[in-house]
Amino acid sequence: MRTELFDFDLPRSFIAQQPAEPRDSSRLLVLERATGRVEHRRFSEIDAFLQAGDVLVANDSRVIPARLKGHKPTGGAVEVFLLRRADDEGREWRCLVRGRGLGAGAEVELDARPVRAQIASEEGGGLRTVRFSEPIGEELAALGEIPLPPYIRDYRGDRGRYQTVYGRVEGSAAAPTAGLHFTPELLRALAELGTGWETITLHVGLDTFGPVTAERVSEHRIHREWAELSAKVAGAVNSARRNGGRVISVGTTSARALEYAATSAQGIEPYGSQSWQTAVVPFAAEVDLFIYPGYRFRAVDALLTNFHLPRSSLLMLVSAFVGQAHAEDLDRGRELLLDVYEAAKREGYRFYSFGDAMLIV
Q1: Whole-angstrom distance, CA of residue 314 vs CA of residue 237
Q2: Which of 70, 83, 229, 354 could lock onto 94 through a cystine, CB 3.0 to 4.6 A?
Q3: Cis omega before residue 22 (within 30°)?
Q4: Would the CA dihedral through 190, 192, 23, 36 be positive or negative?
Q5: Which distant-in-sequence residues (6+ apart) come within 8 Å of 314 by Cβ?
Q6: Which residues are within 8 A (CB) of 316 and not within 5 positions of it... i.e. 6 or more apart?
Q7: Angle at 339 between CA 28 and CA 356, to 5 degrees
């Protein structure tokens, strides 16, 4: 399947620059994937599509203050963007580094306080391993700022708005954005409805949101991201399934973790022909599961997600999920999803991280 098939036109005016306030006032497009039926709601009305016995599974990773500003000894400006730790101590990090003449051995001093950094190695594409003069994990709040995606250019509000209300584990370079719509009050209302709520942890990397550049989808190699799914969550998911409830993934990162727990974590080939439904198992590992049309979901029954970038791996995952209701036609999910995206544009839906949501059932 060619990557260009996942392209679509999106004028900048559709890209949300401000989040909805309150969070659950964002719009919600509900897609019935088997029929193509679409319903337009507010996110606060999501309870109309849930029931007792269902379980929502969300990603509780929080975005770290990953953007560090600094300068070279000569005074040139440098930006260091932390992606993930490269050691347990928090002294070495995998980073994206912007600035001139920053090869291996180059030194940088941070602007926020006198902490030095040295480029330990280059890995191509702007990626570097950076060694700091002291561990910085406990000092990030003072050293850096929470990064917003590059397409959000006009937001000047509290960057804490780019965190979910339930996030608890620091580690992501970008937010699991499907969860940004939930409020504490809505979570309490869903609990009263009898809908379960569980969390996994997947530390989101920038590659998750980037475009696929390979000519063919199957040639793309997704970056590894650390994830954990506990025995408690595995038990809740499997119990819901046994008792006729649905597993509803809050976002594509949660979907990848759930599907990894149903396939690779058990030695099952993700694109193999094993059962359509598989019990999930607990795991803690680096996940590199790339889901695109042709994949058969084994753990996820419904998907809550935002509207995604053209050519992105996220758009491919959602296409695969929609397409599972049309297994005889590999292209049908992609075609239906892109048709719905065009309808969303006509209806004035807002796209990307601060944008509106879709619930696909």
Answers
A1: 23
A2: 83
A3: yes
A4: positive
A5: 208, 209, 252, 305, 308
A6: 6, 212, 217, 291, 292, 293
A7: 20
Q: For residue 41, give the DSSP letter.
A: E
pTM metric for this prediction: 0.93
Q: Which of 84, 110, 145 is the last residue in one of the domains?
A: 145
Final residue in a domain of this structure, among 117, 145, 173: 145
Give, in degrees to the nearest 5, the angle at Cα 21 between 20 and 27. Answer: 45
- Enter the tokens of residue 76: 């040139």
The parent domain of residue 41 ranges over: 3-63+158-360
Q: List, in order, residues 6 or more apart from 275 with CB less than 8 Å away.
A: 298
* Mean pLDDT of the 146-151 span: 91
What letter would DSSP give residue 148? P
CA of 327: how far to CAs of 3, 26, 37, 295, 297, in Å? 20, 32, 18, 10, 11
Examine residue 151 and state whether it is found in any structural domain, yes or no.
no
Q: What average pLDDT does the segment 62-72 reach?
A: 95
CB 173 within 8 A of CB 210: no
pLDDT tens digits for range 277-332: 789 999 999 999 999 999 999 999 999 999 999 999 999 999 999 999 997 787 99
For residues 222 and 290, the answer to whether their CB atoms sit within 8 Å is yes
